[in-house]
Amino acid sequence: MRKTVSTDQAPAAIGPYAQANIFGDLIFTSGQIPLDPATGQIVGSTIEEQTHQVFKNIKAILEAAGSSLDKVLKTTVFIKDMNDFGKMNEIYAQYFTGSSLPSRSAVEVARLPKDALVEVETIASL
C-alpha cells in the first residue's frame, strides 16, 4: 500500500507529483531542485550552494517519512554541466559518509526546472 509524504520543511511540488511516496519499506523521493521551502525560489547561484539546498530538502522529506540520509540506498543526480561534477561531488560527500554509501547514477541534462544547476532523487529505506 502506498502512502504519500508531504512536509512544509521542503518545497511544495511544482507539478502533479508528491514530494515522496512510501511503498512497503521503501521511500521514493521526487527529484529535488534547490528551492527555498518558504519562497519557492532557487537558493544560490553556484553548484555548491545549490547542492547543499537540494540535500536540505531531501533530508527534510526523508525525516518527514520517518527515515534519514543514512538510509538512502540509491541516488540519481541530474546535473546541468558535467564540468561541475567534482564540485557537486565534494558537497555530496558531506552528506554520505562511512561504509554504507548509496548506489548512484549521474547524468548531464540539457535543462532542469527553474534553470537549476542540479537535481537529485533518492530511494531510501524506512
Provide a descriptive summary of the structure in words:
- This protein is an alpha+beta fold.
- The protein is 23% helix and 27% strand.
- The chain contains two helices and six strands; from the N terminus they run E-E-E-H-E-H-E-E.
- It has helices at 47-64, 85-95, and strands spanning 2-5, 20-23, 26-29, 72-79, 103-108, 118-125.
- The chain has a six-stranded mixed beta sheet, covered by helices on one side.
- Helix 1 (47-64) packs parallel to helix 2 (85-95).
- It starts with a strand and ends with a strand.
Distance between the termini: 14 Å
Sheet bearing the most strands, described? 6 strands, mixed
Residue-averaged pLDDT, rounded? 97
Please tell me how large the radius of gyration is: 14 Å
Broad structural category? alpha+beta
Low-confidence stretches: none
Helix content range: 10-25%
SSE series: EEEHEHEE
**Major beta sheet, strand line-up:** 1-2-3-6-4-5
Percent of residues in beta strands? 25-35%
| Large-scale geometry | globular
List how many beta strands DSSP finds. Answer: 6
Number of helical runs? 2
What key phrases describe this protein's structure?
126 residues; alpha+beta; 23% helix; globular
Task: Give a summary of the structure in a few sentences.
By secondary structure, the chain is of the alpha+beta class.
Topology of this structure?
Elements lengths: L1 E4 L14 E4 L2 E4 L17 H18 L7 E8 L5 H11 L7 E6 L9 E8 L1
Helix pairs in contact: 1-2
